[in-house]
């Protein structure tokens, strides 16, 4: 089964992250679903997660991961030096999630510093999105 990433489709930073993953995901292991879509809400509900939770989620092996754990598990599957980020899984989750929260709260500011627009996925990559 493919891994599924649930992301905030209205966030430029989140969209840039998705495009980064698309570039590094040579094995095409991930499909993408917008958190605010009906399918996204339904998936969250099936894992007893409130649809109002603002986070990044990874569904893999019938488990759901959020925040820093989701991000680091994704990084571990990608090509390149991003795999090295998995060493941070050794850091206790509460500490990792504090760092994740700081980035998350500032994601709109971070995204606007580089661009106000999102890149559209290629026609091949669009098949991996459920929005």
From TrEMBL:
Name the UniProt record assigns to this protein: Thiol-disulfide oxidoreductase DCC family protein
Family matches, as Pfam families: DCC1-like
Taxonomic lineage of the native organism: Bacteria, Bacillati, Bacillota, Bacilli, Bacillales
PANTHER family to which the protein is assigned, alphabetical: DUF393 DOMAIN-CONTAINING PROTEIN (PTHR33639:SF2), THIOL-DISULFIDE OXIDOREDUCTASE DCC (PTHR33639)
């Amino acid at each position: 089964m493919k891994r599924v990433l649930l992301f905030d489709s209205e966030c430029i930073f989140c969209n840039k992250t998705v495009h980064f993953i698309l570039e590094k995901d040579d094995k095409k292991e991930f499909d993408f679903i917008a958190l605010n879509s009906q399918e996204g809400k339904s998936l969250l509900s099936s894992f007893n997660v409130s649809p109002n939770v603002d986070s990044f989620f990874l569904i893999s092996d019938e488990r759901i991961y959020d925040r820093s754990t989701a991000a680091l598990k994704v990084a571990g599957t990608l090509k390149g030096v991003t795999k090295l980020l998995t060493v941070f899984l050794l850091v206790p989750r509460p500490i990792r999630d504090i760092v994740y929260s700081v980035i998350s709260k500032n994601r709109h500011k971070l995204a606007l510093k580089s661009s106000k627009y999102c890149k559209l996925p290629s026609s091949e990559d669009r098949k991996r999105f459920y929005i």
